[in-house]
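Thread: Cysteine desufuration protein SufE, structure

OP (GT): Posting the sequence first so everyone is looking at the same thing. Length is 144 residues per the record. Can we get the structure tokens written out before standup tomorrow? I want them in the notebook alongside the other entries.
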Amino acid sequence: MFVSDMPPKLAQIVEEFASAPRDVVLEMLLEFSDAVPPLPAELAGHEGMEQVPECQTQFFLRAEVQPDATVVSWFDCPPEAPTTRAFAGILAEGLAGASATEILAVPDDLYARMGLGQAISPLRIRGGTAILGRLKRQIAEQSS
């Protein structure tokens, strides 16, 4: 398991999932659905947020690279989609305080490294991968 190419908080989450028994991985994943912070008032109508159409449910995100090169991210997904919300929770918690460079280096196969392929459908993995990809694209556009 190579986690040296990830921000420390995210690496810890990945290691916990990768080393967990298969029968608790889904339960662990769903715990992250509560880790999504509420949107600030100015984003409440998804103004300035990007929709991720690869997700089966409505999912919106926004990343802002700060002057100190750290990234602030916002995610919005309905509570009725706990698996998708869990992806957002993992990214919100794992990438908090990370720099643009650190986030851009996160491997695209993040969810496979976590061992989620045995716990959830390929369609959900594809949605989670699209969330990460769009987040990285937004950061790359602001960093160039």
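GT: Both are above now. Quick notes for whoever picks this up: The longest strand covers residues 60-65. Residues 122-143 form the longest helix (22 residues).
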